[in-house]
Design goal:
By secondary structure, the chain is α+β, with helices and mostly antiparallel strands. The chain has two helices and two strands, in the order αββα. The protein has a two-stranded antiparallel sheet.
């Protein structure tokens, strides 16, 4: 018999709370891209995409520069990109 999976609700923050979390992630990551080490044009990336039920939790976010962020999304058809 198959067990029914209960989907856990994802956390989606309001705009102000997300901005605060965004700043916390940048600080946690030392204001550096976690792939190449750049300190320019930083963005916060969801490791598990929101579209795939990824939430706005600190452990699901990582700092990437624009170039690395774009590279991750280009490769992310199935998104198991190793960072």
């Amino acid at each position: 018999m198959n067990k029914i999976r209960v989907k856990s609700p994802r956390l989606r923050l309001d705009a102000n709370s997300y901005l605060e979390l965004h700043r916390q992630v940048l600080e946690r990551d030392g204001w550096r891209c976690q792939v190449c080490g750049s300190m320019q044009r930083l963005q916060v990336h969801h490791l598990k995409f929101r579209s795939r039920s990824g939430g706005d939790e600190e452990q699901n976010l990582i700092t990437l520069c624009t170039e690395c962020h774009e590279r991750v999304h280009r490769k992310a058809s199935g998104c198991n990109v190793q960072l």
